[in-house]
Amino acid sequence: MSVKLKYRHEHKFFINHHQFHIIRARLRSLAELDSHAGPTGEYHIRSLYFDDVDNKALHEKLGGIHDRVKYRIRVYNVQDHVIHFEKKIKKNDFIAKLKEPLTRPMYDAILAGDYEVLNQPDNPFLMELYLEMKHKLLRPKVIVDYIREPYVSRFGNVRITFDKELRTGLHAVDVFDPDLKPVRALDDNLIILEVKYDEYLPGAIRSALQLEGLNRQSASKYVICRKHLKFNTWEDY
C-alpha cells in the first residue's frame, strides 16, 4: 500500500487504582478530557481481533517480534453507526494505524463469512483485508472489551488513556450480540495506562507520569484475552 503513515510513540503500563488516582489528579491540570468521552468522562470500546490460520499476530507478539501488524473491527458504546476495520502497525517503539469505515451490512456479511464485500479494487486497505482472508485465512478470533478514560494535550499531540475492566468475549465473535456477557480478563485491581505522542512528550506530562514502581510493560489486550482460549492442555500463552 502506498498510503503515507504517521508513526507515533506508544508506551504501556499496568497500574493499580492508587496509582491511577494519583496520575489522573496530576494530569487534570495538564490535559483535557477527550471530547468523545461521555458524561462520566469515559466511553466503552469493543474490538473484534482477527488472526490468520497460523495465529501469526499472536505468536509474533509473544515472540517479541518488533515489526508486526494486527487487524481488528472496533465499535464504541456497542453502537453500529461507527464501525471501523483497523490495521495497527508496529515498528520498534512506534505505531501507526490505518482504518476504514464499515457499514452494518458489510459487518454482518464479514461475520457470516462473505468476504466479497471487501473485494473493492479501488480501496487498497479493503483489498488487503480481502486477500488476507482469502489466502491466509484471516478470521475473527476474540472480542476485547473495556472502558476507556481518555485525556489529550495539544502539546506534542499527546493522548493518555486509562483502560479499565478489561474483558474477553471468550469464543463469541459478534460484537453486537445482545446476549454477550464478557468475562474479566485481568486482575480487578489493574488498569492499563497508554501514552501516545508524536515527536516529544512534554516535560510536565512526563513528570506527572513518574511514580515509583511504574515500569513500561508489554500490555497487549489481544494477547491477554487470547489466554482464555486454550484449546489444549499443553498450550501456554
Description:
The model has no long low-confidence stretch (mean pLDDT 90). This protein has an 8-stranded antiparallel beta barrel with strand order 1-6-5-4-3-7-8-10, surrounded by 4 helices. The protein is built from 6 helices and 10 strands, in the order E-H-E-E-H-E-E-E-H-H-E-E-E-E-H-H. It is an alpha+beta fold and 237 residues long. 21% of the residues lie in helices and 36% in strands.
Please report which band the strand proportion falls in: under 5%, 5-15%, 15-25%, 25-35%, 35-45% or over 45%: 35-45%
Counted by DSSP, the helix tally is 6
Low-confidence stretches: none
Helices and strands, in order, run as EHEEHEEEHHEEEEHH
- Fraction of residues in helices? 10-25%
Q: What is the rounded Rg?
A: 18 Å
The coarse overall form would be globular
What integer is the average pLDDT?
90
How many beta-strand segments? 10
Q: What strand order characterises the main sheet? A: 1-6-5-4-3-7-8-10
- Characterize the largest beta sheet: strand count, sense, and whether it forms a barrel: 8 strands, antiparallel, barrel
- Structural class based on helices, strands and sheet pairing: alpha+beta
C-alpha termini separation: 32 Å
Give the key terms:
237 residues, eight-stranded antiparallel barrel
SSE order and pairing:
Blueprint (H helix, E strand, L loop, with lengths): L7 E9 H11 L4 E2 L9 E9 L4 H7 L5 E9 L2 E13 L2 E8 L2 H8 L12 H12 L3 E15 L4 E11 L14 E2 L5 E8 L5 H6 L12 H6 L11
